Write the structure tokens for this entry.
Amino acid sequence: MIKVITYGTYDLLHYGHIRLLERAKALGDYLIVGVTADDFDKVRGKINVQQSLMERVDAVRATGIADEIIIEEYEGQKIDDIKRYDIDIFTVGSDWIGQFDYLNEYCKVVYLERTMGVSSSDIREARRSMSLGLVGDAAFLNKVASECGYVNGIHVAGICTESIELMDESIQSLPVITSDYQELLKTVDAVYLRSQPAEHYRQIRLALENGRHVLCESPMTLSTDEYDELRQLAAEKGLILMEAIKTAYATAYSRLLLLLKGGKIGDIVSVDATCTSISQIDTEDPADVKRKWNGIHEWGPTALLPIFHLLGTEYTEKRMVVRYQDEQKRHDSFVKIDFEYPSAVASIKVGNGVKSEGELIISGTNGYVYVPAPWWKTDYFEIRYEDQGQNKRYFYQLDGEGIRYELVAFARAAEKGKDVTANIGNDITRAIVGVMEDFIRKQKVVLK
């Protein structure tokens, strides 16, 4: 019996896929099809796959061509699979000619001509094309614009800003450059907000009223009542209102949550997150005040994320200590917030103008997790135990600091007409807003 193996993503399975599978099957007697896992696709640069792994596996199975289906999860797995399944022929499309010649040492390699004019990328592009407008005065928008270039179907169409001089040439050459927000809304399908948090409520509402999807940097608003109102409005209009915290979309962070919720370190008893930057607001410069955020807004949502993900949003007590950099107490330089839960505690330390080790430490009854600085864009973490011989390190690919994965999730949600991700739940978004609201109202705040 001649065994044949082939691999692919098989996203939005089409005629070209089926023809390739049929020709692969004709090479032998038994065909094994490897379907690439989501994480491995990200490593290979395929970040905007539309269907889940199980949907893609089911689609391949439904063709009735494959005798066996396996999951491809890591680099080098092809050699392992060829040996494990005693493969005679490895085959793949002709667009990979030469890339897998090294496998000739283990079996015969055959490159098959692909069906011309058909590709998943083209189908994805045709299915969704969303024009995005950038809003704000922060140079961070340069990163967002750059990452959009990696996502099929999203193109930056314009920007609303009063600081165009801070933007890269690619943004300065956009067809729409304006300081009039409503003018921008007329020309785009969706907006990415990196404006001052105090402006978010008004800008989100205007966007939703004009039928535009919204991806907004956290905090979404500074009032839970305002957030509830906007969420209801988005639902009524069938629009996506999504919170942008790039850490939530980093593969390492997602895998960390899964491991801990699976009991990898026992019961979690403490979560401590630190996020700081030496940069601070020049309170004497109106332009700097307009562009930069307070530390609690800049870092608070990110630091709160693992606490609310792991311990939930129903804490029993909260206490803030705030150090301000100005006498008017408008701009904080350092904030420490302590939370109490029925069987755990947590704390965040955030600040602009203060520098500390930006690490994340999660303590459990059997061990603990250490995520080194800067933990919010990590590709690596360690799980440590009393017996150091059991310690384990985890490494994951991180591209674009998580921004491009966030954009993919947003585009996918807009296409499907519903938020199909669970990276940040509405309860967590609302809890973050609640902390910001208490900060403004100085609820249980100790001033320094």
Notes: Residues 215 and 371 are 27 Å apart (CA to CA). The two ends are 78 Å apart (CA to CA).
